[in-house]
Design brief:
By secondary structure, this protein is mainly α. The chain contains 15 helices and no strands. Helix 1 runs parallel beside helix 3, helix 2 crosses helix 3 and helix 6 runs parallel beside helix 13. The chain is globular.
């Protein structure tokens, strides 16, 4: 996923016109190395990852809220796609993946200026740069959309829009550069193949902070807040599961064996997570719930993400099993112990899962697959490097999220009124409702 971004010499005169209308600026490569097979696979992977947000996450989240909030929940995912896509083109891609700074990139590619038909990014030398930009866009989209699940049923839509813009700018873009764009975490050797830190842990801790700042839903702990339609959530899980093949497999940025290894480990981790969560419920509650099984699947998928391109397929089974155990604990005991209302368990599944998977990447990393060995191959220092990356992500995402919420609240109320919450966000925020 990540590689050092290198500024290169000016482009030679090209016979093919540039994609944009601005004068050409220094591009990344003079000689095209674009490979047709890699390009075809990455187009598919890009579509799969976009599918994870709409309709995947939209269905997954909306199926787990009450009927009066289904449309509002879907609207948040749709808004994330639209807003983040434009901001990514304007400046997000350039700041995350262009330039060699340890903290942030440059604006050399703002509004995609200088991208031509043949230009490539050093992080993905065999596909068009415009495709690399588009693929990375889909990661930014779903990360911002994930955070909304923690404050479902109560956040004002206008506040969500402002918060999403700020969170994208000040949390996601810097983290993406630090880990994947040649920033200081990449230089230290932190392993995050497809987003354990950049996507899952950042969204998870951001969601936890947001849930604490927003407060509990009305009736939390006393009223029936059961899901409206779990069949929607199951369909969403299936779309997310398949889309994750593009998420993790596409992070190889080529149609090669490493991509297939990542996909295989991903699938096995999801299977192990599903079975583990279901088995725990069967043993403790005498019935394995559908909600528990799909939660286990997503836990397995999120936890394998940072390790997927560094470990063997059988490691995916172990990581998925650990994910089911740890995330179940976080979504039950930990959540009840500290009494935070993380509506859709963003922290319990994605935050804890991302943290666990990032740490396990340092344990199971296999040099023959990802070029870096972990603890079991005699490199215990990799675990310490992973812990450092986890610490940086926790502090940065958590701290910036808190500040952003306070800033947004100075302009618009963060949550709807009690009457609007009782009425439902579909009506109060969008003037529509399911019949």
């Amino acid at each position: 996923m990540g590689a050092l971004s290198i500024r290169a010499a000016k482009l030679a005169a090209l016979s093919i016109p540039a994609i944009n209308v601005w004068p050409a600026t220094p591009a990344f490569a003079q000689t095209s190395t674009i490979n047709a097979a890699d390009t075809a696979w990455m187009i598919v992977a890009t579509a799969l990852v976009l599918m994870m947000t709409i309709p995947g996450l939209a269905l997954f989240y909306s199926g787990m809220v009450r009927k009066k909030n289904v449309l509002a929940t879907m609207a948040q995912s749709l808004a994330a796609v639209s807003i983040i896509s434009i901001l990514w083109v304007c400046f997000g891609y350039s700041l995350a993946f262009v330039g060699e700074g340890p903290w942030i990139g440059t604006l050399d590619r703002w509004f995609l200026i200088g991208i031509t038909m043949d230009s490539v990014n050093p992080a993905a030398k065999t596909i068009p740069e415009i495709l690399f930009m588009l693929y990375q866009m889909t990661f930014a989209i779903i990360t911002v959309a994930l955070v909304a699940g923690a404050v479902a049923d109560r956040m004002r839509f206008s506040a969500y829009l402002l918060f999403s813009i700020g969170w994208f700018m000040f949390v996601y873009v810097p983290l993406a550069h630090w880990v994947w764009g040649g920033g200081f975490l990449a230089s230290m050797g932190v392993l995050d193949f497809a987003g354990g830190l950049v996507v899952h842990l950042s969204a998870g801790i951001g969601g936890l902070v947001a849930a604490k700042v927003m407060g509990q839903r009305h009736g939390y702990g006393s009223d029936n807040l059961s899901p409206f339609d779990l069949s929607l959530a199951v369909i969403g899980t299936g779309l997310l599961w398949v889309g994750w093949f593009g998420f993790n497999g596409g992070s190889a940025l080529a149609a090669n064996s490493r991509a297939v290894m990542a996909i295989t480990a991903t699938h096995l981790a999801a299977c192990a997570g599903t079975l583990t969560w279901g088995a725990i419920e069967w043993a403790t509650r005498r019935k394995p719930s559908v909600l528990g099984m799909i939660s286990g699947a997503i836990a397995g998928l999120g936890t394998i993400t940072p390790a997927s391109g560094y470990v063997a397929p059988w490691h995916g089974i172990i990581i998925g099993l650990v994910a089911g155990l740890v995330c179940f604990w976080a979504c039950t005991w930990l959540k009840h112990r500290f009494k935070y209302d993380d509506s859709l368990d963003v922290f319990g599944v994605h935050g804890i899962g991302g943290m666990t998977g990032t740490l396990l990447a340092g344990v199971f990393a296999t040099a023959a697959i990802g070029g870096t060995g972990g603890l079991i191959e005699g490199h215990p220092q990799q675990v310490l490097i992973q812990l450092y990356g986890i610490g940086v992500t926790l502090v940065w995402s958590g701290g910036v999220t808190f500040v952003l919420l306070k800033l947004v609240s100075a302009f618009v109320p963060l949550r709807v009124s009690l009457q609007q919450e009782l009425e439902g966000l579909d009506i109060s925020q969008h003037g529509e409702a399911l019949q």
